[in-house]
Amino acid sequence: MEHQFTNRLSQEKSPYLLQHAHNPVDWYPWGEEAFEKAVAEDKPIFLSIGYSTCHWCHVMEHESFEDTTVAELLNDAFVNIKVDREERPDVDDIYMTVCQMLTGQGGWPLTIIMTPQKKAFFAATYIPKDDRFGRWGLKTMIPRVKDYWKNERAKADDSANEIAIALQRTQREAAEAELAEGLPETALEQFSARYDAVYGGFSDKPKFPTPHNLMFLLRSHSADPQTNALEMVTNTLTMMRRGGLYDHVGFGFHRYSTDRQWLLPHFEKMLYDQALLLMAYAEAYQVSPNQRFLQTASEIATYVRRDMTDENGGFYSAEDADSEGEEGKFYVWSTEEAEGMLGEELAKLYMAVYNFEPEGNFLEEATGHKMQTNIPHLQHSLEDIATMMKRSESELATELEKARKMLFDVREERIHPLKDDKILTDWNGLMIAALCKAHRAFIDHADSPLFLKSAIASSEFILDTMKGKDGRLMHRYREEDIAISGFLDDYAFMIWGLLELYESTFDLKYLEAAAELNSVVLADFSDAEDGGFFFTSEHAEQLLVRKKDIYDGAIPSGNSVMMLNLLRLAKITGNTEFEVLAENTAKSFAKTISHYPSAQSMSMMALMFASGSSQEIVIAGEPDSPETLAMLREVRKRFLPNAIVLLKTEENAERLAAIAPFTKDLQVKKGETTAYVCRNYACGLPTNDVGKMVELLTE
């Protein structure tokens, strides 16, 4: 295809950068060439950060970056740099912090204007092409910034320096000596205060899934079943599944809901949301064995295996919200379409159950008008719907599944949203951990082996392809191109995935790999002075600051996950220094964690693991014997959030003892599989009896 314009982004691998490769804007990727040009031509830098499935990023591109008038202004005034935030989360994190400091808000697209020395003096998110409601558009803003740079350089430089100093100051807050008392209990109170008892979730609108909050609440319930924590989890998971947030035709969850009822989603699908939600549904099933939780988890995994898995085993990053230039078009249906595809009787049933309306069942956000199309969603459980319709639930489910398959087949013929097929190490680590949790939680389900198979394939891809000979990870893979040194999240999430994979397979190579990656984290990311871990390696490109964060946003922070990893590794290896490092990490963020603990839910889980009732479970026996499998099944189906599980066999005894020395003397008794259950550093007597082992686990 012939293009009128081509810029340097055409040589990149990121789908987001490639989307802009034929803009008339003279885009550069982040790199020395752009900064050297800015110095040589004495121009400020226009930095635009986004990601491939960002709706407003698409809007700004079509409106402004494809416009030759805007492009001429940008090219004249600036050196223009495009960054994919998913490839360079380090760059994004720094300048998003700047944006929040300057404007009090953030989001994408992120727009930064900065000096050639990378110091920002202007920040915004989406900027329209023309002035709108008293707000500058790009056509007004660019000439004024150009004039400001040329005629008021001292002010620009002073402003940039002040912002850089303020940014650095945010990273130098003194570490508190101690954490506040009762933080998990305080976090639970904060969630209870925000809880929507009708529709679930913890806000009015918009509503984000944030599954790690639900995982924390499950641990709160485990610690004290008298709280309302379990009700908050089960209601939220139920209502999310019923709403339009869930793709009832093709499975998987969209990014977030724009309304309180979970009806109208922002339609993009992110790998990390699938992973974290899969974990939440799997753990919830262990606590409260609701078959709908099992079904939802299985369908999430089906979506990921079908649509988000590379032939080499890695998982893709995301699917866009837009297709044919319209958000959600791929996912919605008119009543006429449904009737034409399903036939009158089946369409009537499907549309009644999933609440289709002739004029459409949702309002356009911008105008408040009905859209003439429908988002499939449930207002009641299928059990209640079957009762209201005076039909058997199994018969209703069969008919609805028949309709779903027909709609799915037709939908597959539509123009699909863009798939961001880059493979990110950190998000793959999350999905590996999730699939392993689901494998164990649903050990008796037919899909359980498929969960594990996918997790193994992804882990083998990451360890074989994304790990260098020096033991260090790379961040991104696409089209056989491996790029960008690993960040803290890459290591933290992969260690998490490998620990879960070990407990699913008991193959020691995964435990050994986790220990090796942990050693790299301690060597390359540790803050030796104040505790905790920097986001970037000491070998990485030096930016304005070396960030260190604990806040759990859409994804848990690398520091909070490392706290849990270290605590688990301490229990496995007997190396109490790991516990000290985990505690020092918590103390280094004590001020932040203590200020608003419900915003640090993964850290709360780590604190509960450290201070609660932990268990070390060692099963000694042959791996495939009925007795061993029976014991493992009893362990796996239970919600034991503070447990580590090891399997000692005659074949692996020496290797296991090298990692976990305390297992050396744990032997098979009476020639039969033997369970050793230790709790809070005190061990019960070994037992060959499954029932007695269960008593030890649940006492």
* Spatial order of the strands forming the largest sheet: 1-3-2-4-5
- In which range does the helix fraction lie? 40-55%
By CATH reckoning, the class of the largest domain would read Mainly Alpha
CATH topology call of the largest domain: Glycosyltransferase
How far is the N terminus from the C terminus? 68 Å
Main pleated sheet: 5 strands, mixed
CATH architecture tag of the largest domain: Alpha/alpha barrel
Low-confidence segments: none
Provide the gyration radius in Å. 26 Å
Total of helices: 27
Give the overall silhouette: globular
Number of domains: 4
**How many β strands by DSSP?**
19
User: How much strand?
Assistant: 5-15%
- Mean pLDDT equals 94
- Structural class designation: alpha+beta
Model description:
By secondary structure, the chain is α+β, with helices and mostly antiparallel strands. The chain folds into 4 domains: 8-170, Glutaredoxin; 183-328 and 420-611, Glycosyltransferase; 335-413, no CATH class; 615-698, Glutaredoxin. The chain has a 5-stranded mixed beta sheet with strand order 1-3-2-4-5, with helices on both faces. It has a 4-stranded mixed beta sheet with strand order 17-16-18-19, with helices on both faces. Strand 4 and strand 5 (120-124) form a beta hairpin. Helix 17 (425-441) packs parallel to helix 19. It starts with 14 loop residues before the first helix and ends with a helix.
